[in-house]
């Protein structure tokens, strides 16, 4: 004789299914089907059985109220009308209590307040004037502007301006380039610029178009994760925020399945993915992967050679990776590695605002 599956056995043992009545009636089939879905979504059998018991208790309370109405001489039609009203009110009441309980937990779990808001502010790094001059980026900008006479030149200038933190100007050039280039990466970079500028709706529309054009391109998927994470950080409604985090995680994980192509794009993909994943709590299971992405940027960036990348741009990626790695490790209590990463920020661009924040965090580590 075949043994029943664990969830069915649990429901039988708890008296939530009739042991001697087969086939099950339709209401009992609904119980089993719903229970199977919950188990398939990660709930353990004992929890699902306990929830079923609570649901049965609610049903008993509703039945008790109906019997009391009839016992008090209320006619069947009025009694059933009252029962219908109670059932709707009870459904709303349970949903409200459930939402209140989940909201607090999800706020903690997704860390949508302080870490995300801090990340939004700290993301907007602008290299110091000293860095731009010493690394030849002032001259590089002049050259790129002179060459921005077609869509490809406009794309390169927009990407350059984005890398040095001038997001509003970068967005204008990237938007112009997007009308003449069938390149989803242009749209992805434009979407991130718009997110950094607080243009949430425009950012979401742009990245949606980019994903539609190139649904398997690593940088597009990673940037889609960034845009959704930024929306989650700004959302007031916990359900909308939680949905956005779920979507962000899906995009980030999909970006991991794409083989590396262009080395600079791969580096940028890892940086985008790492800075979001690292700030999420360990509960999500990708915190460690985010840290590894940031470490990989630090390992791989010194050897990167890229024909169209002006000198100093790769080090800006490196500075971001070091900063987010250092601050995240500091929060995790890994002080030694955090110090080394934060020192790297200071070495790369000591006159920048991000270096000043790194100095401050180094002081806090002691």
Chart the SSEs and their pairings.
Blueprint: H1 6-13, H2 26-40, H3 45-71, H4 76-110, H5 114-123, H6 129-134, H7 137-147, H8 151-163, H9 167-178, H10 184-196, H11 200-213, H12 218-234, H13 238-256, H14 263-279, H15 287-300, H16 313-331, H17 335-348, H18 353-365
Helix pairs in contact: 1-3, 2-3, 3-4, 4-13, 7-8, 8-9, 9-10, 10-11, 10-12, 11-12, 12-13, 12-14, 14-15, 14-16, 15-16, 16-17, 16-18, 17-18
Summarize the structure in words.
The protein is an all-alpha fold and 366 residues long. The protein contains 18 helices and no strands. The chain has helices at 6-13, 26-40, 45-71, 76-110, 114-123, 129-134, 137-147, 151-163, 167-178, 184-196, 200-213, 218-234, 238-256, 263-279, 287-300, 313-331, 335-348, 353-365. It is elongated, with a radius of gyration of 27 Å.
Key attributes of the depicted protein:
366 residues, mainly alpha, 76% helix, elongated
Q: State the major sheet.
A: none
Task: Give the percentage of residues in beta strands.
Answer: under 5%
Total strands: 0
Determine Rg (CA atoms, Å): 27 Å
Mean pLDDT across residues: 84
Global geometry:
elongated
Give the end-to-end Cα distance, rounded to a whole number of Å: 67 Å
Helix percentage range: over 70%
**SSE ordering:** HHHHHHHHHHHHHHHHHH
User: Helix count, per DSSP?
Assistant: 18
Short description:
The chain has 366 residues and is an all-alpha fold.
């Amino acid at each position: 004789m075949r043994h029943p599956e664990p969830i069915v056995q649990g429901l039988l043992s708890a008296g939530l299914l009739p042991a001697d009545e087969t086939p099950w009636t339709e209401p009992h089939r609904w119980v089993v089907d719903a229970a199977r879905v919950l188990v398939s979504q990660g709930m353990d059998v004992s929890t699902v059985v306990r929830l079923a018991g609570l649901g049965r208790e609610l049903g008993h309370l509703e039945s008790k109220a109906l019997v009391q109405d009839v016992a008090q001489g209320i006619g069947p039609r009025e009694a059933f009308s009252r029962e219908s009203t109670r059932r709707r009110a009870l459904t709303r009441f349970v949903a409200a209590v459930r939402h209140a309980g989940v909201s607090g937990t999800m706020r903690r779990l997704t860390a949508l307040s302080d870490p995300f808001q801090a990340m939004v502010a700290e993301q907007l790094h602008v290299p110091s004037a000293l860095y731009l001059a010493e690394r030849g980026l002032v001259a590089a900008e002049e050259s790129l502007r002179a060459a921005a006479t077609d869509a490809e030149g406009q794309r390169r200038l927009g990407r350059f301006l984005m890398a040095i933190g001038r997001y509003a100007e970068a967005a204008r050039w990237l938007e112009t380039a997007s009308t003449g280039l069938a390149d989803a990466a242009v749209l992805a970079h434009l979407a991130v610029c718009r997110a950094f500028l607080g243009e949430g709706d425009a950012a979401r529309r742009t990245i949606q178009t980019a994903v539609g054009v190139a649904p398997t391109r690593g940088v597009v998927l990673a940037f889609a994760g960034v845009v959704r994470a930024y929306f989650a950080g700004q959302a007031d409604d916990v359900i909308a925020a939680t949905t956005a985090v779920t979507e962000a995680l899906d995009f980030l994980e999909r970006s991991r399945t794409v083989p590396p192509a262009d080395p600079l794009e791969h580096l940028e993909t890892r940086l985008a993915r790492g800075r979001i994943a690292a700030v999420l709590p360990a509960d999500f299971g990708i915190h460690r992967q985010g840290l590894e992405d940031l470490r990989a940027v630090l390992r791989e960036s010194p050897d990167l050679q890229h024909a169209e990348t002006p000198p100093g741009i790769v080090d800006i990626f490196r500075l971001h990776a070091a900063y987010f790695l250092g601050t995240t490790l500091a929060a995790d209590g890994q002080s030694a590695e955090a110090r080394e990463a934060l020192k790297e920020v200071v070495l790369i661009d000591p006159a920048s605002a991000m270096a000043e924040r790194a100095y401050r965090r180094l002081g806090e580590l002691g």
